[in-house]
Amino acid sequence: MKKIKLGVIPGDGVGVEIMPYATQVLDVIAQVHGGLKFEHSWYPWSCEYYLEHGEMMPKDGLDQLSQHDAIFLGAVGNPNLVADHTSLWGLLINIRRGFKQTLNIRHAKQLRGITPMVINPNGFDLIVVRENSEGEYSEVGGRIHSGEDEVVVQNAVFTRKATERAMRYAFELAKTRKGHVTSATKSNGIVFSMPFWDEVFDQVGKDYPDVEKRSAHIDALAAFLVSKPSEFDIIVASNLFGDILTDISAAVMGSIGIGPAANLNVDGSYPSMFEPVHGSAPDIVGKGIANPIGQIWTGKMMLDHFGETELATQLLNIVEDVTEAGIKTPDVGGKATTSEVTDEIVSRIKQLT
Ligand code: ATP
Ligand code: MG
């Protein structure tokens, strides 16, 4: 029996509502598999936890999480209770950095039964590989003087190691898919980091002669991602560019509520973390209509991560069968509740046996 130990953090808002459904789906998948079992430990770390304890997670929180094979996260943040930067840094960034989750991977695909932002006769299916540890989101810089003499400097940090790691991951992934990688650059405007980024892309690309290399400036790329997403397969991007492109690619699918993401620890020294693209969605909390697909698809990425690719593919197929049958939450034009969508997915998984 293959056991996968999961640290489950439902988090805030719709994260709390969706998580029991998503873990139920994983448990049913494991039953169908026969030789797989998820063992979950639940952690209540959230904004409510912060109000009680003055911190988003306990001091030994990372130690506790390190006992698991992966972390399954819901959504973090409740701006009515705790400032966003406090909740974000106290939990999400703390885990990403502490566990060296240096890559953020997000999958976007035109799902059957869900109307995308722009109708694409050929559909689309792309993955953004985002460098997750450095780049533009560095803490290097400063402010001096004040008033009209004020000067602010914000540096971006690009190391060869982290840049190569992102590129290599993207090329490896491309080999298993359509075979082309697009690099998000801006070397016509950013004169140090982006020419370096381009160089590393070319250098690493030499090891992958069968993978086609494409490069596009971030501004044009952002526009193309909306108008012609079918042109892309793998996109590799820096931290800031990747952050922007992945929100676009989730929106292009039709709802932010369906996008999945993985924060990967590439060398396996710590657990990786799987979380949907969407946030805590305070505007729909308590209505029972949150879309569970983002979290369930995130679970699918986790199955892939643990080598269960066949079941993972079947799971996403079932999700699409369900949306195609019109059983959808309101954000994607349906009338179903979170539980109705999940029940349908679960009953179709059971039919696999
Ligand atoms: P965060 O700061 O946590 O990223 P946010 O305010 O940027 O939060 P979301 O919380 O994702 O973003 O909400 C953006 C919009 O998308 C809201 O209108 C919300 O209701 C909707 N939304 C987000 N997640 C879902 C979901 N799972 N199902 C349906 N709608 C959702
Ligand atoms: Mg957000």
TrEMBL record:
Co-factor requirement: Mn(2+); Mg(2+)
GO molecular function, one term: tartrate dehydrogenase activity
Assigned keywords, A-Z: Manganese, Metal-binding, NAD, Oxidoreductase
Family: Belongs to the isocitrate and isopropylmalate dehydrogenases family.
Name of the top EC class for this enzyme: oxidoreductase
Keyword hit for Transmembrane helix: no
Recorded catalytic activity of this chain's protein: (R)-malate + NAD(+) = pyruvate + CO2 + NADH
Domain Isopropylmalate dehydrogenase-like: 5-345
UniProt-listed NCBIfam families: PRK08194.1, TTC
Name of this protein: D-malate dehydrogenase (decarboxylating)
Domain of life, per lineage: Bacteria
EC number, as in UniProt: 1.1.1.83
Record flagged with keyword Metal-binding: yes
